[in-house]
Amino acid sequence: MDAQMLTMQREAQELRRESAELMRQSVEAQKEVAEAHKEVAEAQKEIAKTQREALEAQQEAQREAGRVRREMIEAIRESTAVQRESFTAGPDSIPAHRRDLPEPPHVVTPASVIAEWRENNLVVTADIWAMAVYILPAIIAQGECLYPLSTIASNTGLTEHRVHDALRMLQKRGCIRQTGVTPDGAPVYALK
């Protein structure tokens, strides 16, 4: 019986050791959880701070945009008032030194070319518009357009046949003229 008692005491002592080890592990786990909670709380604070700063920056940008918008509106109002005054005052109200100024040189832009085509009763269809928007910058900048039909077609979304028809229409209406052909066979166009 003493041996049995001794065995039971050893088992109880072993259980107490295991219990103490489990308690120690539990305390360690609780410390790790507490540390993780602390890190999460710090991260949340940092996120909140960043969000506040972003919101403040957005609000400042909106205030600045509103200020610029108000300034633009005021400038437009002032310009409109000056124009209104000059129209109602008549040509005699324009100072002589301003009346004698030469007209500013005409700047050619794709939009001005298309406007001129419209003035000459050319119906600017979607095909002509798409093609003109692509070729006019090259014609204006370089004096001529050296693009093959396939290049114009791929960049405008039109078929080569529709590009060809649009170019022929512009030639017939006196908007552009063919000035030659590149070595690879692409037609060269210039403004008329």
Notable traits:
single chain; 192 residues; elongated; mainly alpha; 6 helices
How are the elements arranged and paired?
Blueprint: H1 2-89, H2 96-99, H3 110-119, H4 126-142, H5 149-156, H6 160-172, E1 176-181, E2 187-191
Antiparallel strand pairs: 1-2
Helix pairs in contact: 4-5, 5-6
How would you concisely characterize the structure shown here?
This protein is mostly helical. Helix content is 73%, strand content 6%. It contains six helices and two strands; from the N terminus they run ααααααββ.
How would you characterize this protein structure?
The model has no long low-confidence stretch (mean pLDDT 83). The protein has six helices and two strands, in the order ααααααββ. It has helices at residues 2-89, 96-99, 110-119, 126-142, 149-156, 160-172; strands spanning 176-181, 187-191. It has a two-stranded antiparallel ribbon. A hairpin with a 5-residue loop joins strand 1 (176-181) and strand 2 (187-191). Helix 4 (126-142) crosses helix 5 and helix 5 (149-156) crosses helix 6 (160-172). The chain starts with a helix and ends with a strand. The chain is mainly alpha-helical.
